[in-house]
Design a protein that fits this description.
two-stranded antiparallel ribbon
């Protein structure tokens, strides 16, 4: 069975002068489909396409090697 963890990190940016609501929180809809024993299709839809965001999918065993969420994100950013 596939053991995966979706990690979504967010970095907000200005909305470049359009009509988007800058005060609205950035939220995500995450859809997982075509789940098999060794793969999955993961799609992430932000509530605001004007802000920057990053997402990745890693095996749970890899994620569990880090002592905290912050340690994992720092490792991702460093690479």
């Amino acid at each position: 069975m596939l053991a995966a963890l979706a990690v979504v990190g967010v970095a907000c940016t200005p909305n470049n002068g359009d009509d988007a609501d800058n005060d609205a929180p950035l939220t995500f809809k995450i859809e997982i489909s075509y789940l098999t024993s060794n793969s999955a299709n993961v799609q992430v839809y932000p509530s605001n396409y004007h802000d920057d965001f990053y997402f990745d999918v890693v095996e749970k065993a890899v994620y569990d090697q880090y002592e905290s969420d912050e340690a994992f994100i720092n490792h991702v950013i460093a690479d």
